[in-house]
Amino acid sequence: MNSLLDRAAVRLFPGTEGHHGVLPPLLVVLTFVTGLVDAVSYLGLDRVFVANMTGNVVFLGFALAGDVQLSATASLLAVGAFVAGAWAGGRIAPRVARPLWLFALLVGAHAVLVAAALLLDLAADAKHVLIVLLALGMGVQNAVVGKLAVPDLTTTVLTRTLTGLASDRLGPASVRRSVSVAAMFTGALAGGLLQLNHGTAAALAPALLLLAAVTLAAALRGRSEARAS
Q1: What are the residue ranges spanned by the domains of the chain?
Q2: Hey, what CATH topology would domain 21-223 get?
Q3: How confident is the prediction for the chain on average, in pLDDT?
Q4: Cα–Cα dist 144/150, whole Å
Q5: 139-154 b/e with 16+ CB inside 10 Å = b?
Q6: Tell me: the pLDDT tens digits for 195-229?
Q7: How far is CA 224 from CA 13, 217, 221, 227, in A?
Q8: The pTM is what?
Q9: Nearest-CA neighbor of 33 among 180, 177, 151, 164?
Q10: What integer is the mean pLDDT of 183-205?
């Protein structure tokens, strides 16, 4: 797995071998997960996003203006939980010295929150609690991605990515941006198909498996690097 991740990292950042380690391909996987989870939240949980906070702020305005298809409560819960997750991630980050350990820890926490949402969906109808759990996870994910600051791979926001793709000259960054857009799109497509045809649990299950795989890959590489140093 490590050699595969290394080759993918070089493709995304040619000429800077080792600079970002195995993080770039793992961030692409997280971008796909974002598409999956936002498909669940928008299509299955009161027309709200748990990763795209710009959309939620706009939805809140629409709901307060009187749009009965949108829920001000759901938007507020999503924004509040996302902020809480990001705050928690930001407080944890300075306490973990190695980037891969930090990444594994916080993505692992995201996986636990998605697992809790999956189990809750199987056991009860509690949409608002699911929104909180999923938005908390996305806030944690955004906190660690922001701390690592790998260019063009934010995992949740594509506005700047699309702007750079359109306005900058073609080059290695264009490849990263295109991969990021494609990952989000395919995640949303897969999540939409699963949510609409099989329900929330079916869409959250692959998200959980991918988050667990990313956590394991980062932890194993982090342990390998720690032994080598």
Answers
A1: 21-223
A2: Growth Hormone; Chain: A; (1.20.1250)
A3: 91
A4: 11
A5: bbbbbbbebbebebbb
A6: 999 999 999 999 999 999 999 999 998 888 777 76
A7: 22, 11, 5, 5
A8: 0.93
A9: 180
A10: 97
